[in-house]
Amino acid sequence: MLWLIPILPLLGAALNGVFGKRLSKTLITSIAVGSVALSFLVAVREFLTMLSLPESQLPILTDYFTWIQAGRFQAQFGFMLDHLSGLMILIVTGVGFLIHVYSAGYMAREEGFYRYFAYLNLFVFFMLTLVLADNYLLMFVGWEGVGLCSYLLIGFWFTRKSAADAGKKAFIVNRVGDFGFILAIMLIYWTFERIDFQGVFSRLGEASDFAVEPLGSVGVLTAIGLLLFLGAAGKSAQFPLYVWLPDAMEGPTPVSALIHAATMVTAGVYMVARSAAIYNHAPGALLVVAVVGAFTAIFAASIGLVQTDIKRVLAYSTVSQLGYMFLACGAGAYAAAMFHLMTHAFFKALLFLAAGSVIHGMGGIQDIRKMGGLRRVMPWTHKTFLVGTLAIAGIPPLAGFFSKDAALWAAWNDANYGKLLWLVGVIAASFTSFYMFRLLILTFYGSPCYTEQDVHHVHESPNSILIPLIVLAACSIVAGFAGVPPVLGGDNHIQQFLTPAAHEAKSESLGTTAVELTLMAISTGAALAGAGLAYLFYVVRPALPERLSVQAHSMYSIMLNKYYVDEIYDSVVVWPVVRMSGEFLWKFVDAFMIDGAVNGIGRLVRGSGAGLRHMQSGYVRTYAGWILLGGVLVIAWFLK
Amino acid sequence: MNLATINIAAILPTLVLSVVGIVVMVAEPFVGEQKKSNLGWLAFAGTLAAMLSLVPMANNRGQWYSNLWIVDDYDVFLDFIFLLIAAITILTSMDFLRREELNHPEFYSLLLFATAGMLMMAASNELVMVFLGLEILSIATYVMAGFRRADLKSNESALKYFLLGSFSSAFFLYGIALIFGATGSTNLLAIADALRSSKIQISLVSLSAALILIALCFKVAVAPFHVWTPDVYEGAPTPVTGFMSVGPKAAGFAVLFRVFLTAFPSIEDRWGSAIWMVAALTMILGNVIAVVQPNIKRMLAYSSIAHAGYVAVAFAATSDRGVSAALFYLLAYSLMNLGAFAMVTIISRKEDKLVNVTDYAGLGSKRPGLAAVLSLFMLSLAGVPGTAGFAGKFFIFRAALESRLVWLAIIGVVTTVISFYYYLSVIVQMYMREPHDEFSDVRLCGSLKFALVISAAGTLYLGLLPTRVLDWTTTAALR
Amino acid sequence: MLETWVPVLIFFILVAGFGTVSLVLSYAFGPKKPDARKLSPYECGMRPIGSARERFSVKFYLVAMLFLLFDIEAVFLFPWAVVYRDLKLFGFFEMLLFIVVILAGYIYAWKKGALEWER
């Protein structure tokens, strides 16, 4: 039955893609939403079946057919269900279902309605293939597939140049990461002579020739780990490959919620957690993961502090939160990373969808400086957005508190630079809290900064938009209780649940209970401080930010311009490549050398063809002559 | 010989084809004008029945009828190809015959007899038997080439094919006579045994091998014995051209492999290098001359010569891997080439006249479905990855490299690149030229659709999932 | 092995030699007194009308071919009849099959009207 989970959305995509033009909107919606809903139900059923099995029978492996066989190389088309992929299929189909419902209301008046749903369903199919795959190559197929769908959906409004450019940017930046992933797969095959997860991990577990490579040495496993992480950094928007994600906000908002917040961008985290066995043998690679994760977390959060576009703030927030997940992975706490992945999927999808509801109600305005006071006009949107803000800021007892804390605690316990990573994480957390409350206050509180002339008829969104918001808000409140740590009287279900699948090294807890509680208090304090600062800046003394931006002008403008990273890339990478290809490759190599050679050979072939056709006189006697000549030559050769 | 030694199952497919062929022929004068198409379906059913009877035949492996007849995996696989060719050709011809007012069901009888001849060739273990099959095939094909009796070109085609075919048959017969003189037998295994003993006049044996090789090279149309092909293919009715470009060719290769690898392995040093040169020459000539052909039937004729060259590369490899690659290629080539000719049949329309490449201009915008299918066949013939043509060429070149025929593989790849030019020119016409024709009189009836679906599905299947068929050909190649 | 065929070779030489010798002798010693009538083609003693290279109706060929087919069938029957007793039942059925196939062809030719001169 496992195959049914991805096949259903594929079927939906095929139906809508092929016949969508002729179908009514109701039918298109039912097909798209229905297929994902069914897929979700099947996923739940499979998940429960998996839970009922004893641990020795896991993972559930199903091979459907041999996909590629070339010599000793073999790739199966097969799925693997264990705790890790089980959690992912629930998130993908569950959140995916809610966002499909939301889209039905949000996209109702769009041209190409069917095209949108066909892409969205196709995305769900590829995402499920990615998480269910039982080998790296099949995972790569899903990986590329979601990249394709992401490209198509970012550029959904392809008549807008900025949208088309953003799609291209996402695709090209991702290529850099994919390049690393492909090299990693080749290196894995070269090292282990197989590419299925179980086979690779069991060889790692048994053979003594794969010792843990000490920190500082770069062996083959470290190389694999680094290359895999390059792939993950591309897909999950980590420094320095994060640049595509903020631009990806050109796509429709539900797409940002599903693909660029809840699911696709977490594929990198999933891949690293899936490859835990490799990373545990390569502490050097793990350290890189942790450092890049922590740096991205604070770097992106600092950019988020000053952005004014509601979706861009959320985009940088996503980059920053993904950084937390990699920080946890890098500290060897894969379960904590997956925990944060799950809670983040809920509250970030919620925030995006609520932002979408705001944009919808405001008739397309995204600048938070032109909003304000929406609390009264959009009460439900406001309430759910508030929940999302509290959750992401890490205010107990909402989901974000527990998961972020698990990640930070893991960082603290990391033997290498753990304390420093923790400190970076806490500062980033206070940043997060600040920009989220800033967003909340500017959007929903105070007095409206728009006039009726600018925006007609600001209104609350319809039910198909609000219901997913409410469901996600509920999840954002309760999801954290899956991982209440022992010091707070819980037993950390999710940690125990994921440990067998995540190959987690049993951590010998370094810190004591007192330390843990202290750290928790500090991080909560940081969150509250950020919130308080936002309150001070935007409610108590609204003139303060203005003064600050003038006084610390250089710092402010660097952050507002996103540290000029895009400009640096343009001048260091894009411009030289364009010049090189325009002046040298195109005009000289292609137009002169290659075209010249091709045309020359073409003329040569045509000329000799025209000459040789004179063999064909049309007379039988000539033909018999040729045959005789050939016969004489063959006989002579035989009798030589 | 007595009744007990008769093994019906071993010859069942051939028997079925012959009986159905005779029934169709005898029934023809008794059937009214309206119901003549039904005989076409009867013939089609005959090929299907013959395909089914491959199962009992496959269960009767071994040598039968005084070792004249051999049943092995090689035989079964080739028979499958032949029957598939016959079935698709029947489906393609039905509408054609009606359209051209040539609705004489004798056509189907001839086709079935020709196919029976091919089955005999694949199953013969004996040179005289091979000759018998060859003649049954050839005579039926001569008639089919001239089936459009009132058309001068068709007559020309039949006469040229007949004259030159007889010429090559003489080579074959002379070869048989000499080998009998040298070894005292025409049985392939007996010849091989005799050649192992040292008392044989090696020059006599070489001469007869050369003569047999020449005759079969004529049949499969490899250079320099290909000169008849373009004229004959151009004049023959299009479905017949399709049949001729795959059926006799596959049967000829079936015999070439069997005769030379069974009977003459001990003088491989003589014929191996000859095949090398023939293959290289064929690939170069076929592909280069095809580039300048404005007539699509002539273009496909040269393309079929070129493809025979690729199969000859597999032959030159003289390994099991080579035979298996050749078998795979024959199946792939049959499917895509029959598909291409079915499309040519459709587009040529009344009188079979519109056969220039420029007649395809704008097909892509007027009839996108047909254009897409034809593009698939063209891409497959060119050998684009994902299609049967690519998989086939890949296996052949791999076999060549394993047998250290590096230069032959290089020539093959280079000429494949040349072939892209003329295959893609059809696609260019269809999609990038303005239509000067509405294509409104292009009719597509059920049987033709069926033929196209089989060929297209087969082309894609072999291209995307070649493993299963390759496994089959690998077992078929083990002797 | 080839030695056994030496008499045949001698026979071939004798035949060819005899033909050549007689032709050469008659050419060398025969009297030659040509006139116009002698050099004209012989046509039952009548004066020739038109060209001798006339086109024959295709019907003649059809009849000739049919004759050839059934004639060959009859030829096959002779050796079969000689060894009929040795072949026993197998021979009987085998020939029956052969004749049935030929008969099918005969029926076909008949129904198609190949045996009627005027159509």
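qc> Residues 4 and 43 of chain C are 48 Å apart (CA to CA).
qc> done
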